[in-house]
Every structure is written in C-alpha cells, then in structure tokens.
Amino acid sequence: MENIESNQPITHDTRTLITEAFVQHVLETGREPVSVYKFAQGIGIREEEFYSYYTSFLGVKGGVWEQIFERTIAHMEAQPVHASYSAREKLLAFYFTWIEEMKKYRSYLLALYLQPEGFRKAMPAELRSFKIRFQAFANEIIQQGIATDQIVERKYISDKYADALWAETLFILQFWLKDTSTSFEKTDAAIEKSVNLAFDLAGRTAVDSLVDFAKFLYQSK
Amino acid sequence: MPDKPQEQNHIPTSKVQRASKFIGTGAKVGGNYIKHYAKKMVNPSLSKDELHASNAEDIYASLSELKGSALKVAQMMSMDKNVLPGAYQDKFMMAQYSAPPLSYPLVVRNFQKSFGATPEMLFDTFTTSAVNAASIGQVHKATKDGKVFAVKVQYPGVADSVSSDLRMVRPFAYRLLNMNARELDHYMEEVEGKLLEETDYKLEVKRSEEISQACSHIPNLNFPKYYPALSSEKIITMDWLEGVHLKEWLKTNPSQEARNKIGQALWEFYHHQVHNLKKVHADPHPGNFIIQDGVKLAVIDFGCVKVIPEYFYHGYFSLLKKDVLLNDAELDRLFREQEFISDQDTAAEQVYFKTVFKEMISLLGKPFHTTEFDFADDAYFTQLYALGDRVSKDKMFRNSRQARGSRHGLFINRTYFGLYSILNQLRAHIQTTIPDWFK
C-alpha cells in the first residue's frame, strides 16, 4: 500500500524509526496515536527515549515534512541537468520532485491534512520547520533570479518574495491533496502555470515602468 | 545554458483567463460589425471582404494565444474553406506555427511518469528546449547511438480541456461562421471525438505504424519509423526526418517536374488510404508534411485519422461519379442517404437544396472526372471558394431546421479541401486516379 522506503539510503536510527512508525500508525488507524506512552510501547522504546528525539507528536509530524523536503532536494540535485537550470526551472523542478516525493505519503497526508476549508484559518504548526528550510531554498532561487535579470529587485517588495513562494507552496499542496485527475496531471498544470505567473509578476512588468514614469513626472515637476 | 526568461510568457493561465480572451475577441468582432455597418451607410457598395479581414485578424490574435483544442479548432476551420470565408483562411493557416513551449522540468516529469527515467538516461543527447511546437505538444530533438530522434511531448491536461475548450468556442463559432446552432452541434460532437483521439499518443503510434506500412509501396513517399518502447500516452518517439516544410520548399522555386512529383505522391497517398484502407490521415495541413532531399514527401503527423464507414463511403463517392448527375432517382436516394435532404423538408426546400448540392458536387468531383487535372488552375479554386462563400451566407441554409450532410462528411470534406489546397499551392499537374468501381 504505502512505500515508506525511499530510493535514497537512509540510516535507520531511532529518529527514523519513530517517524516511520508514526506514519504507519496514521495509515492504519486514520488518526494520531492516543499518547506518547502507548506509542513508545508499541515500537519497543521507553517513553523518555522518545522525548530525546521529539518533544511531542507535533515534532514527529514536522519531522515527516523535513524528511520529504530533504529527499526532494537530494533527488532534484541528483539530476545532472539541474545545475544548468534557470531560476524558474529550478523552482519548477522542485515542485515536480516534491509532489512526486509526497506521493509516497499521500494516504498519510490525506488523513491528516485534507480539510474542506484548507489552511485558510491557520497553517498547521508542524509545517514551521519545513517553511524555514523552504524559504532558505527559495531565497537562493530568488538571488539567482535577480542575478540573471529574471526577477526585479523592488524596494520593500523584494523581502516578501520568499513569503509569496511559500504561499504558492501551500496552494500547490492543497491543490494536490484535492486533485483527482489521472496521475495528478492537473497538479502538473497548476505548478507550471502558477510558477510562470509568479515569475512573470516578479520579472519586469508594465507596473515597474509605470512606477518609474510616475516617479520621473513627480520629480521633474 | 543561458537563462531564458522568455519561455511561456504569453499563455493565458486559467480557464477564466482563456474565457475572457474569447469574450474580448467577441467584443472586438462585434465592434468590427458596427464599423462595417456604419461605413456601409455611407458607402452602400462596400463588400464584406474588409469586415472579414478585420474579424480574421482579431480572432487569430486571440486563438494564437491559446493552446490545445482551441488552436485545433482554428486549424480545422482554416482547412474547411467551405465553412470559412476567404479572408479568414490565410490568418488561420498560420495557427499551426504558434503555441509557446513547455518548461523542461515538466518534460522531465512526463518522462519520469512514463518511463521512470529522465530523458538524459534514455538518450545520449536531448534538447532542453523545444525545436518545434505542435498544437497539443512540442517536439524535442534527441540522439542515441548516432541516430537522431524526434520526441513529441504532450501538454498536460489537454485531454481534460478538450470539452471545456469546445464549449467556449461554440457560441463564438456559431456567430462567426454563419452556421446555425443545429448544424454546429451536429459537427461539434464529431470534432470532440476526434480531438480526444488525438490526445491518445499510444493510438497515434499504432495508427502511424499501420498506415505507413500499408502505404510503403507508394513511390516518393517516406515515413518516420516509430518506437513504441520509447512512446507512451503522452510521449511519441520517432525518427528525426531532415527536410523543409512545404512553404519553405516552395520558396526555393522547385521545377514543375519536382512539384508534380510531390503532388502525385500526395495524391496517391490519399487515394490508397481512402479507397483501399478506408482509413485516412484527415489532417492534410502543410505543417504535417516535409519535403526531403531527392524530392520525397515525408508524412510526420498522424494525429487525426478518420475511419470511413463502408455505407458512407459508397454513398459519398458515388456522388462524385461523373454520370451520377444524370440519374435523378439515384441522386435522390444518395442525397437522402448522405443526409443532405430529409422528409422534414418541404418540396420547395428539397428542390432548392438539391440544386445547390448538385452544383457543389459537380465542382468538387471535377478532378475525378478526367484522367489528368491541373491544380494550378486558379479559376477552379475561385469557383470553389465562391460557392463555399455563397453557401455560408445563404439564408435558406442558415434558417434550415436541420444540419445538412453526414457528420462523417465533415472530416472527409476537410481532407479533400486540404488536399486540393496543398496541390493548388504546389501548382501540381496530377494524373488523377479513381477506384475501379468508379469507372
């Protein structure tokens, strides 16, 4: 049913044992374990041992997200062509690899995150560490984009680019969770189109020229 | 590789945007009509040519920004000169050369989904950007072990968008093509079916192999080899064929002999398909053919294949026989069979439509009535378009309660219009062949 093993070799230490057992539990029961005590007992470790890795199930869920992110980056960079990608292509490649990685956890993710109202109320807290890592990655892409003129630096707005890309990431996640098309083709299209939109907006647009022109008129009065 | 900021800058991104594109065009076209009638009040002799020309500009500008089925419909309409007034024609012919590319990461993703491997793992080299755009996909050039391949990759979600795109085109086509709603529905179904088939690349590979094998005996005709192991629902791998497109070839001023040779190969290709295989490559627009060194015609796209039902075949081609016009009772039977007239028509309507169809048929069948036909004869084509134009504006047709002509006829007519039009561009002199039962 579920393929938790990744193609990447991972060390089977206690940390991964915990996350894997947690995913397994959610898959089989459709919900989180009732208590850390019960859970630790189930996998044959003492409760205090659990706490030396994670402080709560929230941390474990965060760990799953981190794992997906790390594997995505590893898989993506393993492709020789990746080094020659432009900023736009790097972001596209990230999302495509990411949803492919998430596919291995789809049932788990659906059980925990498929809600009709989406994340509008609040982003699940366990996404925080994933967010920090993603934004570091996004900033690299943005820097490359700026260096190659695909992205324009704008006062005040530039700082928000990484936040905007994070919002896009959440959008893609929810789109994918709800996607029922054959081999998630619609998500592919959503990624392609939303990344293009993001880069078109971040690149030089008519608005920049308008602002520039308005500034000129104002200053030369 | 240098960064390419220009890729994918101009496709309307969502369905809403695509719809608004159409609405925008509709409004512009409406404006053109108003302009036309305003001018006409001042100058009553003004013809509709100018109006059609400005409409064509606006429609084309809008359609060329859309991909997938909308573009397909544009191409289809451009082929069927019978449906489309003369001025629209040229503009639409250009549609096949537009459509912006897919990003390379998505191409990689399609490969991984289909074969579980990246293009680099399957080929020695693979171009990261498309070398050619097709209406529902794009072509990359690849090499392996010294052989060169053309790899066609389909845009994601095309199959899903076919039906919704056609719904968007519908009201628009209805207003602009002078077709009535009944007629349009009648044909849209057939078009939708064909478009959905075109999105199935596995089927295309199967049919390409079938037809190219069955036609391999025809002289001066060439087909690429297909590689089913490197093809999937979304990807087709075939031999890369060197050559130039028809339009470029014609610019090099080929001799009459060379043009006849290409034209003859084309004619025989269609003759064999229609009369022997009863399965026809129903998409004869110039972009699907290339001319190779040594004056050979290569067929590179088998997206649209129409299977001709036996009952339709006999009725349709019996009408093209030279002497068929003499026998009134027989003609009546055939017209009914081909759904040109029906019992719902009044006697007066029957007489009227029969006269028009007779005229159309004798004109269309003209190349079949002699053993040689000169397709450089512009007078013949002017006659053909003039008739099409007249029919499309005809009040009796527009107000008719039902669709005229079998739906199978849609693609067969389109095939013949396309074939004739290419032969006309080639200015070729053809030894026309007819099946034995025709004589």
UniProtKB/TrEMBL annotation, chain A:
Please give the SUPFAM superfamilies that the UniProt record associates with this protein.
Homeodomain-like, Tetracyclin repressor-like, C-terminal domain
Coiled coil start-end:
none
- So which domain of life are we looking at? Bacteria
The record's section on Pfam families has: TetR_C_23
Q: Which residues form the Tetracyclin repressor-like C-terminal domain?
A: 90-217
Protein name in the entry: TetR/AcrR family transcriptional regulator
Native organism taxonomy? Bacteria, Pseudomonadati, Bacteroidota, Cytophagia, Cytophagales
From TrEMBL, chain B:
Concerning InterPro entries, the annotation shows:
ABC1_dom (IPR004147), Atypical_kinase_ADCK (IPR051409), Kinase-like_dom_sf (IPR011009), Prot_kinase_dom (IPR000719)
Q: Which GO terms describe its molecular function?
A: ATP binding; protein kinase activity
Q: Name one Pfam family in it.
A: ABC1
Q: Where is the Protein kinase domain?
A: 125-439
**SUPFAM superfamilies per record:** Protein kinase-like (PK-like)
Query: Superkingdom of this entry's organism?
Result: Bacteria
Q: Which Gene3D superfamilies match?
A: Phosphorylase Kinase, domain 1, Transferase(Phosphotransferase) domain 1
Keywords of this protein's UniProt record, alphabetized?
Answer: Transferase
KW Chloroplast (keyword) present: no
Q: What is this protein called?
A: Phosphotransferase
Q: What is the lineage of its organism?
A: Bacteria, Pseudomonadati, Bacteroidota, Cytophagia, Cytophagales
